[in-house]
């Protein structure tokens, strides 16, 4: 994908380069912030270590990223698909867990309330 190659190469990430009306510099910024959103959700999930909270954190990370606009939504989808593709092959949790993770990812990206997946008793700081 050309856009992925452009975003991964900082030498061509200048305000004078544009794609569909957006500067590559701006897209890189959204991509970096999306990574931060996704990382924060993952980090919180690890910190919470709370039973049945996985899908909530999937939805929340994608929701937060998608709130940054189309670039955030796109980057969240790319990150989620890559993670599930990688995890699906090594986690041993199986295709059904991957399907449920992707359902929660898509729910969050579409603007759905992540609390749909929030387990009862999860501390309010999350």
From TrEMBL:
Gene3D superfamilies: Serum amyloid A protein. Keywords: Acute phase, HDL. GO terms for cellular component: high-density lipoprotein particle. InterPro entries: Serum_amyloid_A, Synovial_Prolif_Regulator. It holds the Pfam family SAA. The keyword Zinc does not apply. Residues 86-126 are annotated as: Disordered. The keyword NADP does not apply. PROSITE patterns: SAA. GO terms for biological process: acute-phase response. Belongs to the SAA family. Major acute phase reactant. Apolipoprotein of the HDL complex. This is Serum amyloid A protein. The lineage of its organism: Eukaryota, Metazoa, Chordata, Craniata, Vertebrata.
């Amino acid at each position: 994908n050309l856009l992925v190659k452009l975003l991964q190469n900082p030498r061509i990430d200048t305000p004078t380069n544009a794609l569909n009306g957006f500067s590559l510099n701006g897209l890189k910024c959204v991509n970096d912030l999306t990574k931060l959103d996704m990382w924060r959700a993952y980090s919180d999930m690890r910190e919470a270590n709370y039973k049945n909270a996985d899908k909530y954190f999937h939805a929340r990370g994608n929701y937060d990223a998608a709130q940054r606009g189309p670039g955030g939504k796109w980057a969240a989808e790319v990150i989620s698909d890559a993670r599930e593709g990688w995890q699906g092959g090594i986690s041993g949790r199986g295709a059904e867990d991957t399907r449920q993770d992707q359902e929660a990812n898509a729910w969050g990206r579409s603007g759905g309330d992540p609390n749909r997946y929030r387990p009862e008793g999860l501390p309010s700081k999350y």
